[in-house]
Amino acid sequence: xxxxxxxxxxxxxxxxxxxxxxxAEFENPALMFSGGKDSIVMLRLAEKAFAPAKIPYPVxxxxxxxxxxxxxxxxxxxxxxxxxxxxxxxxxxxxxAGRVVEETGARASRNRLQTTTLLDAIEEHRFDALFGxxxxxxxxxxxxxxxxxxxxxxxxxxxKAQRPELWNLYNGRIKMGEHIxxxxxxxxxxxxxxxxxxxxxxxxxxxxxAHKRNVFERDGMLLAENDFVERMEGENxxxxxxxxxxxxxxxxxxxxESGADTVEKIIEEVAATRQTERGATRxxxxxxxxxxxxxxxxxxx
Amino acid sequence: xxxxxxxxxxxxxxxxxxxxxxRLLYDTKSIFEDQMEAVERTSEKMGTEHVNLALLxxxxxxxxxxGITIDVAYRYFATxxxxxxxxxxxxxxxxxxxxxxxxxxxDVALILVDARNGVIEQSRRHSxxxxxxxxxxxxxxxxxxxxxxxxxxxxxxxxxxxxxFAMRLEVPDLSFIPVSALVGDNVVDKSANMPWYxxxxxxxxxxxIHTASDRNMVDVRFPVQYVIRPMSDEYHDYRGYAGTVAGGxxxxxxxxxxxxxxxxxxxxxxxxxxxxxxxxxxxxxxxVRLNDEIDISRGDMICxxxxxxxxxxxxxxxxxxxxxxxxxxxRKKYAIKHTSRAARVMIKDINYRLDINTLHRDEEATEIKLxxxxxxxxxxxxxxxxxxxxxxxxxxxxxxxxEASNATVAAGMILxxxxx
Lengths: 301, 420
Fold this sequence. Notes:
heterodimer, A: alpha/beta, six-stranded mixed sheet, four-stranded antiparallel sheet, 10 strands, 33% helix, 16% strand, globular, B: alpha+beta, Rossmann fold, Elongation Factor Tu (Ef-tu), domain 3
């Protein structure tokens, strides 16, 4: 018998440790769930951390209203399966309440508006810790973020004033009104996530697999034909076999041409790919070199 | 072979560290085209002559604008043999704090030495911190070999110089590799330019370093993190103690003692989501059930009756001070986090402050400031269950937290119980 864990089991143990630590030290945590593969893995890890008991915190979905219907079905089914309470914070409600103003034009998106909805939900439900499925390999600003990421009263991230994080000792002390964003899968890569999904036989929404879809091209990305985006001149819709590498707001999430219709084929594709998933498929990160950093400072996921 | 290897690198841009990491990432195809294009675009904008690979790791706006590295950055790459996690720390500002942070979880420290300059102050500092944090393996890359005509003598000179200095430190495993990060010699593939070098390339070495024996598999230590009580019909009487194994191997049927109560029992079962397991070892996250109903809560420790940690309120430790707004001095009080246990401590004494360049001990020191290291003693409000840090990194480490600002102000490595 050799006392060694595979890399997936070691990552899993680290994540479970973090999830239990938060349950023990915070009054009112919640798990942010988008229906994307990272939050699906995170939900599975939470299930594992507390079995045979139920997950001791609710699941929070910040809903832009611009969704892939497959993903919403999946969200409802999966949260019911694990017996978690689902809280939906709706961007539409935030708009209706006059808290934010909807962007207009062909490039309008609700991506940035989500931050207000999220911060309002945190205040309303008095959440003191929020689990997010961000990974450090995704993006440069995230590569420098702590597992416990401190947020002030305004939900802001200050990259220059982060608490040192050593060993597996996490400092969760906060004052009233502040909160911590917790990233239990910080050390996982995109490939780790897929291998784990394969290993554990985890179900994921159908849009991750190759399927026929009406798409149009914008800025080198394939966007789905949908009711929320105005197409510009020359943006013609055509049918293509595609799949999604990330799942987000339908108006800014690009599909990739792919014939990968099984998890195994996706793993092969991911292992061979030469583009990061956010670079290939997210319009929100293309705005500027520091797009993610700027949004995070405001309180984004 | 453990599949994850965590390594820490430190240094400034000039010594070729970023180039070396860039090369490891690039040659293992871990840099993506869009990342490379972004780096090329930014390099061009900044008017630099070569593609600046440091931009791959410098992610924050201020860093790119000022050309500095603010913080520990984590990078990932994998080969068919292993997954690697790099904690990349800057060489200049907040140097000690960041390197201590990166080193705390590292299996390997990668230290770069310029073949032309030999062992300089910075190399000494890196090595000292690596040994203080008990990183079991140090790999010294003697870099820029292309600039000394791939001369074996130059390599040997650095090697001897380094060995002589490292004798004063505790380094269980020390190895040397002649490389040129810029050209790629001995980084991923073995170089034809140095036929006299018989060892492996850096990547091959990292792929084969044996780390399994670095973990403590002898002393059973299970800090209770969370008590699982489903209170459901199906699991009406279930009461499990969830935690991460911090040492030793646990098996159902083992006699155990629970600290601080001292009650003894037997492990009934070790549970996971997938079902019970025959044994658990570090760093597995499991749930332990015992034969007897004992009052156990977070912060308690399960271990073997004949092999217990030191139970004490008086601790001697090396600390690295990490707060810029205040210094450490006797009589000050802080919150402590040690395993899953939380308490308060009062600093009793500063034994000495250590000059990390000369290793000189200043026993007259009355305070320890930002980025300084020293030996202190403290008393805690509750008994702690500790091991020497050199014996167990999990039960031998702690952090101090300022109770007013909530900042993490110190990282500590336990030496033992205060004598007398």
